From TrEMBL:
PANTHER family in UniProt: DUF1707 DOMAIN-CONTAINING PROTEIN (PTHR40763:SF4), MEMBRANE PROTEIN-RELATED (PTHR40763)
Pfam families: DUF1707 (PF08044), LiaF-like_C (PF09922)
Entries under InterPro entries matching the protein: DUF1707_SHOCT-like (IPR012551), LiaF-like_C (IPR024425)
Ranges for domain DUF1707: 1-53
Compositional bias of kind Basic and acidic residues: 56-68, 207-247
Residue intervals of the Cell wall-active antibiotics response LiaF-like C-terminal domain: 93-154
Domain of life: Bacteria
Region (Disordered): 48-79, 206-247
Protein name: DUF1707 and DUF2154 domain-containing protein
């Protein structure tokens, strides 16, 4: 895959750091800088850093768009999404970091990967969801693997539609508690179709939980009234017995 100007600049920055640390000589630095700015592909850049104990060489990103028209890379965004009694959405062209952390409490998160750019071939969506829902849309040819823990919860995943061992992978990890993750495979332009059904189920769960809480409070109040009634009765008995003993 062809390298971008940003990729070449990143490698040049690493070479400057190596020169400052004394890992390469000024002559080696000049020679490698020439190689960097004449490089056309990622394969041309890898040998320049192969003997340096620093970060990995740039890896090609995976553009999930099916059309190959040249577009600028999407701007970086926070890999942390939080929805508490609210909703968060990512769609369109966005850069997916190696790990995206999703936290929702009585909320919902919608992630549309159909026009996204993966920072690497396999990315991780780490979900912590309590009484909430995460809706994910992926394009055809993307493998989705769920490795999360679900307690009174569930994952709704489509069947794998590709046998390509090099297919992009979105791995779902984390923990669900009275929540759910729904994944739909749709081409660009198709309606996701699951948002309203998942949210209806989410609101149904909240409605049920609310009435359970109300019933529990009513039971507690009845128990408190019974205890106070018993205490008053016992106190009256004690007073009556004391009065009889005093005669």
């Amino acid at each position: 895959m062809r390298a971008s100007d940003a990729d070449r600049d990143e490698v040049a920055d690493r070479l400057r750091e190596a020169l400052a640390e004394g890992r390469i000589t000024p002559e080696e630095h000049a020679e490698r800088i020439d190689a960097v700015y004449s490089a056309k592909t990622y394969a041309d850049l890898e040998p320049v850093l192969s003997d340096l104990p620093s970060e990995e060489a740039p890896r090609p990103r995976v553009d999930l768009r099916k059309d190959q028209q040249a577009l600028p890379p999407p701007p970086p965004q926070s890999p942390n999404l939080v929805a508490i009694f609210s909703g968060v959405e990512r769609k369109g062209r966005w850069l997916v970091e190696p790990t995206t952390n999703v936290s929702c409490v009585f909320g919902g998160v919608d992630l549309d990967f159909r026009q996204a750019v993966l920072s690497q071939g396999e990315v991780n969506v780490n979900v912590t969801c309590v009484f909430g829902g995460v809706n994910i849309v992926v394009p055809p040819g993307v493998r989705v693997i769920a490795s999360n823990t679900a307690v009174f919860s569930g994952n709704d995943l489509p069947e794998d539609d590709t046998a390509d061992p090099d297919a992009p992978v979105i791995r779902i990890t984390g923990m669900l508690l009275f929540g759910g993750v729904s994944v739909k495979r749709k081409a660009v332009g198709e309606k996701a179709g699951h948002r309203h059904s998942v949210r209806r189920e989410h609101h149904r769960m909240l409605h049920h939980e609310y009435h359970e809480e109300v019933r529990e409070m009513q039971r507690e109040r009845r128990e408190e009234r019974r205890q106070r009634r018993d205490e008053r009765r016992d106190r009256l008995r004690e007073l009556r017995d004391e009065r009889h003993r005093g005669r």
